[in-house]
Write the structure tokens for this entry.
Amino acid sequence: MKKKVFIKEKTAVAGAIELILLIGLFAIVLSMIQLLYIPEIMEQKESDHMDEISNQFSRLKAMMDIQAKENTSIPISTLITLGSSELPYFVTAPAQGELTIIGKDDTAYEIKISDTITYDLTSIKYQSHNLYFVPQTYVLEGGGIIIKQPEGKSVMWVDPSFNATPIRDQNGHVTNIEMYFDIPVIVCNEGNNNIGGFGHCYVRTNYSDELSDNGWNYWSDISSINISTEYPNAWYSFFNQSFEKDVKNNITFYQRAKYATIEKKQQVDIEIDLYYRKTCIYAKVDSGG
Amino acid sequence: MKRRKFIGKNNAVSGVIEALLLVALVSIILATIQLVYIPNIMEEKEIDHMNEVENQFSYLKSTLDIQSITEKDVLVSSVITLGSKELPFFVTARATGSLYLIDETDTNSKIIINLTASDENIPLTSIKYVSNNWYCCDKIYQNYILEGGGIIAEEPDETMKVIPAITKETRAGKIYINYSLPVLKGTQGKKSYGGYKNCFIYTNYSHKNSTISEELDKSFFEYIDIVSDYLDAWNQSLNKFFSYEVENNYIKIEKYPQSSPEFVRIKPESKNIQINIIPIYIHVQIGPGIIKT
């Protein structure tokens, strides 16, 4: 039997090879996009989301400050975006986040004045589970906003309502130091105080007139303020940056593994007078519908 | 006459076929992008825009809340992005949206405190955003409504995203409900706006009326009715907010009448309700420019 020869000439081979090469080129371009460009886009997307979280946390702090200042129990809901979504068609993963309210009954940390008076150090904590951008943790603690990354020290990004002012005599010598500390204490409402995912959620806050201090308390000549916290470096760096030279000359402050402390220097003969006020804010996390 | 032969050999055919194949390939790729990928991109774009609107509505609500708290007559502008633009080069449609102020003169929604002696009527005003999306119609809520201080998302179904400024307390056998209710006052010609660009909503505090304070007695069958276009949202959110009181049969919250609901009824069951509503009047203007009130 005669064998049929299908390819007699090589005239059209160039076209076929070219087509195969084109498909190969297309596949290479797609792979390049997936391996190089998409991670960059996703990193940018997660970075944008972190910027959004920082805005939302600063807004949450502002709302709580307004509620405390006005002493009003009108509740306000602040939106928090928990995560960012994936890109369609390409192999990407959504970034998730988790929001937790650590109220006065749940916290392990406290503020101790002269080893006598104790206030709970409460917080609202957002933890991102980013896959492309560095995962960040935002914590609204003691009225300040702290940022923490897995490798690195915690930083006080927005200062709490705490300040120290040197009082001088007619000759300009420092006679005493006045400190003001507005201590927000978060009280969890009934219900769930933890939420995770990548959608929206709301933090509903309202001021409690009943639980808060009625005006400023005064304590003359305190010996120390001890803040036990998960983020001692943030508090230490805040003291270091915000205290002026005359304050630093008369007090000492340091950090240890689980606390940051301010103490009066032994050899100086001045008083540290503290004005402090506890403002209680009810907080609840709501999934929004 | 000798006939000329144009195609004598087949050597150049491959090039022509290749060009045709290439054109076909490009067409197929373009068609696939247009028919499959572009609708997905547009859907993502519209979903992002609706998320932005939710964000902007929560900012608008907190602005109204701050104005209610501070009671200062300061004009504050809040932005709402009405739509999202089309993609260049491809065949896509622009998403548009409209904003409406339904103020105390236009609204049919209200809160009725039904007492044996007399009734109290308080208008339930709203700012409504209606989107005109093309790609994400069944994927995400299409309309947002700020009614009575709460944020409602509507279509395909409805839900209360943020509950109004209501607080509750059970004390001395009574349930105390405090409600700071923003009542919106509009200006003729500044109650609606549409398009796809940013739209500003100007708000300023007007005044606060004296607190409407009534005790609803369970033995006289007194109750509160919330008349609204969004009964499911109100019913679900109030039942969720008062879940403890409802589970313990202190109060009952349900849509009424059950066959064709017209309002949400809150009535005392085993405990009386002390309701305190503070109507806080806020001027609202929508669109470019401000008319001095």
About this structure: The mean pLDDT of chain B is 88. Helices of chain B lie at 13-70, 231-241, 243-247.
